[in-house]
Amino acid sequence: MKKLFTLFAVGAILLGCSDERKDILKVYNWADYIDEELLDEFEVWYEEETGEKVEIIYQTFDINETMLSKIELGHEDYDVVCPSDYIIERMLKNDLLLPINKDFGKTPNYLDNVAPYISDKLEEIEGNGKNAKDYTVGYMWGSVGLIYNPKYVSDEAAYRWDILHNPAYKGKVLMKDAFRDIYTSLLIGLNKNEIDSGRKDIKALAFDTSDESIALVEDFLNSAKESICGWEADFGKEQMTKELAWINVSWSGDAQWAIDEASEMGLELRYEIPRDGSSIWFDGWVIPKYARNPKAASYFINFMCKPENALRNMDMTGYVSAIGGDYILEEMSDEEAYSPIDASYFFGEQAREACLNPIMYPDQSIISRCAMMHDTDTESLLRMWSRVKGDNASVWTYVLICLVLCALIFAVVMKYVKKAYRRKKYRKNRKRR
């Protein structure tokens, strides 16, 4: 494990440095989202390629907003961070990113290993006239869909978002507590007929936060309340392995983890992206505005795009790398485990009938119905999400709340009575003296 520096140590190292600190590279990433042995290996590789020494300070965050706040409000001097797609969009709009230097001299440029599909998605990012491909490089990606237990749920049922309304699954559905992911996925699914007929464009729809569209998704979620037994940030996959829920609206990365864990327990779980349509997400490397070692940052991003390093990061994290190419295709193919799918959108024509894990690389017919999330009207979406979740409490939830409030009131009253009794007793004792 790469050692983490304390704030005191970091301050001591950086004290007295000029605007650039060529011997330190500060990397800010999601927890458990990299093969940390690569950090030490990068330091060696960087010296071999440039003749310069560099030491990595590696820190982690748990949500995008924590990372963004430190940079936007705190002006933290991280050199490389790994935000999600919509946050990259926001950072571009707010002029918080530096362009990535793609000129590495004699060192090969591995940035071109990013799959065409991810590069195309980068071009969909709204950056106030800036091309996102100049400011970010894809790292990991995935989809939003349904983890389900085939003991209780059929494959055909998981093809449609209407499964959330099925009374057979009352109280057996967990919903990922991620308002933007769920909103975009459901909005696309609920507009399937309009998309198929050409009346609506799926890419444009992903930007739509009109009152009409928000009401459409809100009504759908409200009508699914009896099915939803909880809103989860990270515990859903574990609940699925324990059969406490039968369906979990979640991310493909969590699905793969849950499926692997369940298999070791003798339990089968599956994952499906509803055929109605859904959303995809990706995280990417960027260089923040206040970085002080942009050169080493660009080299670090380049290093992570080497196919062998991308494969190691996939093996370590369980997520799917944005890196494509023949090497990754060959390593990920398994004719004995998987049926052929069309993954040409990601690997090119040679993957027209590739034997790949469909959770990691969905078929072209499915991925064509998915769109990318965007940084649109956060406040309106949050208000909708709060309304839906706030109204989701059952009668017993309200009873429990009332009991807790009664207990608190009783405790306050008793505290007052005891205090009054002590004062009365104290006054009597004083009179006796």
Portion of residues in helices?
A: 40-55%
CATH topology of the largest domain: D-Maltodextrin-Binding Protein, domain 2
How many beta strands in the DSSP annotation?
A: 14
Q: Biggest β-sheet, characterized?
A: 9 strands, mixed
CATH class of the largest domain: Alpha Beta
Structural class: alpha/beta
CATH architecture of the largest domain: 3-Layer(aba) Sandwich
Q: Overall pLDDT, averaged?
A: 89
Total domain count: 3
- What gyration radius follows from the Cα positions, in whole Å? 26 Å
Low-confidence stretches: 1-18, 391-401, 419-433
CATH superfamily of the largest domain: Periplasmic binding protein-like II
In percent, how much strand structure appears in the residues? 15-25%
Overall shape: it is globular
Number of helices: 18
Distance between the termini: 70 Å
Please render the helix and strand layout as text:
Blueprint: H1 7-14, E1 24-30, H2 37-50, E2 55-61, H3 64-72, E3 80-81, H4 85-93, E4 97-98, H5 116-122, E5 136-148, E6 173-176, H6 179-190, H7 192-197, H8 202-205, H9 211-223, E7 228-232, H10 236-241, E8 247-251, H11 252-264, E9 270-272, E10 278-288, H12 294-304, H13 307-317, E11 320-321, H14 326-332, E12 340-341, H15 344-347, E13 354-355, H16 364-367, E14 370-372, H17 378-390, H18 395-432
Parallel strand pairs: 1-2, 1-3, 6-7, 6-8, 10-14
Antiparallel strand pairs: 4-10, 5-8, 5-9, 5-10, 5-11, 12-13
Helix pairs in contact: 6-9, 9-17
